Automatic annotation (TrEMBL):
Family, as annotated: Belongs to the GMC oxidoreductase family.
Organism, as annotated: Planosporangium mesophilum
GO BP: any one term: cholesterol metabolic process
Domain Glucose-methanol-choline oxidoreductase N-terminal intervals: 65-262
FAD-dependent oxidoreductase 2 FAD-binding domain residues: 9-41
Residue ranges annotated for the Glucose-methanol-choline oxidoreductase C-terminal domain, each copy included: 450-504
Record's protein name: Cholesterol oxidase
UniProt xrefs under InterPro entries: Cholesterol_Oxidase, FAD-dep_OxRdtase_2_FAD-bd, FAD/NAD-bd_sf, GMC_OxRdtase_N, GMC_OxRtase_C
Names of the cofactor(s): FAD
Amino acid sequence: MNAATETTDVVVIGSGFGGAIPAYRLAAGGAKVVVLERGPWLRTEDFTHDLRLGTYTRIVDLIQGDGITVVAGNCVGGSSVVYFAASLRAPGFVFDRRGSLGHRLWPASLRRATLDPWYERVEQTLPVAQQSWHDVPYPGGLFAAACRNAGRTCNPVPVAVDLRRCTNCNWMLSGCRFDAKRSMLLNYLPAALAHGAEIRPLHEVQLIGPAVTPGYRYRVTYTTVDGDDYRVPTGGGAIEAKIVVLAAGAMATPVLLQRSAAALGGVPAAVGRYFSSNGDRVSVAAMNEDRIRDVLGLEREPGVPYEALHIGKPIGSMSYDRLDPHAAEFTRFSLQQIYFPTITNLLTRSGDAGSSWFGVEKKELSARWRSWLTVLAMTEDDNEGTFGVPPPTGAFTRLASSIGLSPLRYAPTANTLRGWAAADTEARAVLERDGLSRVRPWSDVGGALCAHPLSSCRMGDDPATSALDDSNELRGHPGLFVTDGSAVPTSLCVNPSLTIAALAERAGPAIVRRAAEFGVPVRYSDAW
């Protein structure tokens, strides 16, 4: 590509949790920062309350791998714009996980206690609010009542939402028109801009290689893409920097590094291996309205016990009963009430055996959609995902503007299946008790469904099984850091956004130290 080369102190690739936080810390410290983001830049007034193609599909990618389908954000702010805002600290036992490799997977320097100060910083900055039962929507209340009926506990979920501004519209997948959801658009990114950072949307990075300008280390080559069809290139260029922070997401970061391996003189063998779906497992309970009334004594309005799947925030309550630190690995999980929009109705099976996609039973099931209760289990999976040969450009092959085909292969091991089976059993024990519902599995067509991709370029102490050291720096490549979900070593048993953000905050001092070592006039400040 014969394009002019520019220079800067720091290039940040991606603008979600993993990119926005380092961008702010470095810009606030005095570095010249350029953020390259593959997706568009939407403002509050651009978010819509519909599921039409060309609206929410502008900012959400549905990525199909072999054995798995992943949902990810594609916009300035990344997945923070489309996530459901559940903000939880990972349980302490997660940091001691050994998986099937037989040794501790997290760096020895990282435990829950050492990450707590960084969790607290993110919680205050977003900020995170603890819902009361008065804030929890009807589906969350129904799940809590079912848990109590089954002898389980249930709690309101802490969320990165301004509860005073939230209208409970349940359109979080499409962004937030009310500036209630605390995405990166409302905190770290504006702060980075205020300190001189530059954000460039519709810039898809293709390659990272050595710089040719004296005094710089890395050359980042990118393509600009059309805002209406991301498959159409509109130009391109290159920018050289002393520091690169790679935060393109767990589905893109390993692909970009694999494509760049030859130019970089090789990358660690763990790049593109050990992908985790966060153990995501979805079940759909078709609730019996009569039993809700007779067993639970609930009534949303006169004559209507429930019929409220679509009402309120997407996430309201969850049960932590199976997060026992003394239990065996691959048997621990959380259960969370969660909402999926009508477009996903076809993904649940109407029968217990096989995939009943059509027919009377399927039609009747979809017709009773308002009486569904959707439950997400987050389990301990086995980091079994592996990325194959990267496509010539991009993170995946785009079949349409929001649909792509990834080189990721995900075949659940016996350990992962064990965790899913335990979660399925618990979901049925809670929701089918006393005839409250019939629990259906999410569709197996296309494999697992994942909204929390992790670990594809993970940190750790063992160079053979981790791509990053405990400061998020890519082994063998000083000044190249990875700070997105791909750096998280294992599944977390809870929603990962807060942990990704806390780890990105924790990486800040190390990135600043390396930048100063390479001649960038920058200092670290924890001020906000």
